[in-house]
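Worked example

This section walks through a single chain of length 76. The input is the sequence exactly as stored; nothing has been trimmed or padded.
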Amino acid sequence: PGDLVFFNTLRRAFSHVGIYIGDGKFIHSPKPGAQVRVESMGVSYWSHRFDGARRVVTPSGSGNALPGGAAEPALR
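Given that input, the structure is written out below as tokens.
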């Protein structure tokens, strides 16, 4: 939970991002101004477009993002 999940929805890598919340689900906004919702990553639409995930880690490696986005994304 808390990892960023990336999808290719516009025929280019990382064109859509959500936040993984566990149990195979993520939260995202399907388009600007739309209501935020929870989706299953197992749904065919999302599983075919999944491009990868990243965990935001702090220099100490605790995995907690710092205020203001000071944490550097790192692939783990």
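What to look for: Residues 44-49 form the longest helix (6 residues).
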